[in-house]
Write a structure and sequence with these properties.
three-stranded antiparallel β-sheet; alpha+beta; globular; NE0471 N-terminal domain-like
């Protein structure tokens, strides 16, 4: 489960009952990829969802963060 908190922060709750607030701001500001640029707008950032256990944005998973990485506090998309 993921809930919007503020700015670029989401509260991620895991199946073991733990949760943490993850700040995606530094990633969005430091990783300039044209596909990610639109998620710097908060209106677009807030359009996240959980699919197959991952936090994703966009119809075709423009931006994806595996929950397993988020559980460890890592904010990095998987390599393609």
């Amino acid at each position: 489960m993921a809930d919007y908190v503020e700015e670029y922060r989401l509260k991620i709750s895991f199946s073991d009952g733990t949760s943490q607030i993850i700040d995606f701001g530094p990633f969005l500001k430091n990783h300039s990829h044209p596909q990610h640029d639109k998620y710097r707008r908060l209106a677009n950032f807030k359009q996240f969802r959980i699919e197959r256990g991952n936090v994703v944005w966009g119809k075709d998973w423009d931006l994806i963060f595996p929950v397993s990485q988020l559980y460890q506090g890592m904010v990095a998309p998987p390599p393609f």
